[in-house]
Amino acid sequence: MVWEEGCREASPYPDYSDKWLDKFEANRERDKRIEKKLHENGWRVAIIWECATRKEAIFCDVVNQLADWLQSDAQFYESSYREK
């Protein structure tokens, strides 16, 4: 979940050291563990990628999708970032 496909700002730079790549991977594993614990405790999980908040049209779509998700029974929502 750390690197959203299509989001330049969420991608590692080619010259990142192994230390940073390891940190990103550790963050991914941490996020998976936390999401699992939240679900086990009855929480629903929504992830909004920062890239999805940068352009008004995309953000408006995400807000509408999130509103629909909140009224649904779905346990998980994750925004995506796609250029219009």
Description:
The protein has 84 residues and is mainly alpha-helical. It has one domain. The protein is 45% helix and 7% strand. It has two helices and two strands, in the order αβαβ. Strands 1-2 form a two-stranded parallel sheet. The longest helix has 23 residues.
Please give the alpha-carbon distance between the first and last residues.
Answer: 22 Å
Spell out the helices and strands N to C.
HEHE
Oligomer: single chain
Give average pLDDT, whole number.
84
Number of strands: 2
Shape: flat
Number of domains: 1
Indicate the proportion of strand residues. 5-15%
Helix percentage range: 40-55%
Uncertain residue segments: none
Strand order within the widest sheet?
A: 1-2
Number of helices: 2
State the secondary-structure class.
Answer: mainly alpha
- As a whole number of angstroms, the C-alpha radius of gyration is 15 Å
The main β sheet shows up as:
2 strands, parallel
